[in-house]
Amino acid sequence: MSILEFVIEVVGTYVATIAFGILINIPRRALNVGGWIGVLGYVLYRFTVLWGGGYVVGNLLGAVAIGVASLQAAKIKKMPMILFNIPAIVPLVPGGQAYQMIKNFALGQNSTAFVFLLQVVMISGAIAFGFLLSELVNRIQRRFWRHHKRL
Amino acid sequence: MSSQKKRDQLILHTALTAGRIMIENGSEIERVEDTMTRIARNAGAQTSQLFVMITGILMAINGEVGAQIEPVKRRTFDLEKIAVVNDLSRQFADRKINLRQFADRLDHLDSVSRYFPFWLQLLAAAMVSGPLEVVFRHNLPDFWITCVVGMLGWWVYYVLNKYIQIRFLSEFTSAAAIGLMAVVFVHWGLGNSVDDIIIGGVMPLVPGVPITNSVRDILAGNLVSGPARGVEALVSAAAIGFGIAMVLQFL
After folding, report:
1. I want to staple B171 with a disulfide (CB 3.0 to 4.6 A). Which of A113, B24, B118, B239 is the partner?
2. Site from A55, A99, A100, A138 to mutate, B interface, most B CB atoms within 10 angstroms
3. How does pLDDT run across B206-239, given as a tens digit for each residue?
4. Is the ipTM of this complex over 0.85?
């Protein structure tokens, strides 16, 4: 991957995340941060895949990063967390694999379709599990803060 | 009616309206419960009992009035309203507005919807489709045509959503239109790859809100509402998939 390709991907992810935010009517002052969280999640995913970590681990790490970063943004901006993590997750959606699955089912090539179906299920599962892990981090942090305040 | 009773009625009305607006516009259940409990507590109710589901809310507070039900009938994605309710609730907690003002603003919020203008939504749909096509498929020559296809696809979705008001049907039709446009445009020589154009073009239709909320609801222990949202996301995805598959069948 050349530098130019990387820059194009980052810009594309940022623009797409913000644009998706506009489609679901996210308040204007949350858009920019949401875009950067999307870039963060995607870059983490991309580098994990590049360094041989595999799609599943990449999506998992991306989702964890999105979850943790969204909570920090929600705390700083005093806005609900879902404003940040819903658009940010869009670049991780397994659109390509889902499309290949549909296409192969439609054309009657079931064995190829099942390979893609498995990928879609595994990637979606990884994203869901990534959110779960990020929630774990968030709860620990909240607990730590409360503990800290009492001291 | 005694003033205490009136006050209790107002508390219930405010909390229920806030909860209904949040669920209608795509909030997760835990946040609704949290906000409603806070409203009741900040308004001076000693205890409050809540039963929040994705299709309706039941709430009771101590005092002279009984429990009340608020059905949730429609579901859209308008996250700005959730943010506004959140802001109002914070202001109410800080005593910047009183309960009466809070209730008035909620009722007002319900009747106006402040979406981004339609041309900006079309532009946004184009800016979801094209960049994601490049990010996923690295196919730069098809960038512009993907933008156009995604934009027209969103236009179909928006118009149908306005008139038939069944989201799954609009998604199905819109996906079929995107597939058809991709095939036709490639046939005319305006694009290179049908696959890449379709992948980019359907990205604005991705059910991001139900997917995320489903995961969060299940994690929070809402075992009824979470899977319900999951089904919503699944049906959306299936509708899009069938739309595309139908076009590909006829190739």
Report:
1. B239
2. A99
3. 888 898 899 888 888 889 999 999 999 999 999 9
4. yes
